[in-house]
Amino acid sequence: MSSTLFRTKKVEQSILDTEEPEHALKKSLSALDLTVFGVGVIIGTGIFVLTGTVAKNNAGPATALAFVAAGVACALAALCYAEFASTVPVAGSAYTFSYASLGELPAWIIGWDLVLEFALGTAVVAVGWSGYIQSLMDNAGWSMPAALGSREGADVFGFDILAAALVLVLTAILVIGMKLSARITSVVVAIKVTVVLVVIVAGAFLIKGDNYDPFIPKEQPVEAGASLDSPLIQLMFGWAPSNFGVMGIFTAASVVFFAFIGFDVVATAAEETKNPQRDMPRGILGSLVICTTLYVLVSIVVTGMQHYSKLSVDAPLADAFKATGHPWYAGFISFGAAVGLTTVCMILLLGQTRVFFAMSRDGLLPRFFSHVHPRFKTPHRPTILLGVIIAILAGFTPLTELAALVNIGTLFAFVVVAIGVIILRKSRPDLPRSFRTPWVPVIPILSVCASLWLMINLPAETWVRFGIWMAAGFLVYFLYGRIHSRLALREAGEEQPSAGGGGTP
Known about the structure:
- By secondary structure, the chain is mostly helical.
């Protein structure tokens, strides 16, 4: 059984499967489109919220160093993603990469993980967008009925109609075509980046040097067992992370890392890229560099405008401008956040549908969902199905506690991709690689270590929920996926490969 569970799908076969007319996606994206997608999904509420949280509780003005540390951890993973995406330009991201290097069962596990990650991420962002819109409506003197507004902490049963409507509208846009999605994303990202740049430039004139003293506040250890921020660290090493000091910077890095989540979504669009060998590395690494630079500049500005101990946790940028006598910027920042979240939501939904589509094309999920629209050449069936499900989730379910599952899912994918790079280098050294991760296996090993370090900083409840979802995934695989796998059918002679062979047992 072990040989069938870890059978790999040849890279050549994966590429040939994308050329089947009924399963072929339209290639329309450029390096610029991919970079815009990356910036669009990375810059979200994190830049507007997390800066104040970690500055006040963990790192002070050294929050800028925390963003650098988190950016380095992401860069290690990004180098691995860039090699895989340019070598295996097929929809599915880490799922497809795992199928080519680790085998069918690991590929299923990571695909199942990504489906949850992107679904919850889309729903959480949609609810956050709804909150910003309702806040702007309240400022204008309008208010949503309680039964149709956000349900977080509400005393009445309701349905967040704005969150659900956003998901459904974005679903329709994704069905119509990737190029339309790219154009809309470009416009929204331009607005979002403009807001961030205005905040940086305007805030730079309000900086007071005294607010940077001390740059790294004196360490204040947290009593063991008093915090649930990183229970696994306490369990394994007997100590809790420090507030402030050098260790406070690394604790902050594990928090602000979540603001970077999303660059890996770019890899899911590899199959729809005109020149993936050249453009995928540019899109992945370019978007990460741009966003890291903006994050560092914003953290420097906001901690210079207001002393870290006085920063707001909920809206640090907006409240910092209010504290310096410029309340107009508060509304401007809220507007930028609301506009920006639309692209985050759309690109997360895009990533999920492409992973689902790739798993369906391989037979691990019903192949009904692997057919593309005859006119738009998009995977319309999984897009519509998942869009409706996520709209219902966003409308009915408060997802605050489940949001951490998005983080653990992303980190788990980083670990798998890094390991896959090492394995594929050894098993298929003959593959043409237009981009090669430098210093293999050092960079992938460092990526694995960095991701695992951030994972153990997550709450224990997140690990429990993640384990339950994975257990359900194993059940689905053994009851359906393993039996209907196209690779298994080809090996049994029940289905002929597109050309040139199937997998290796």
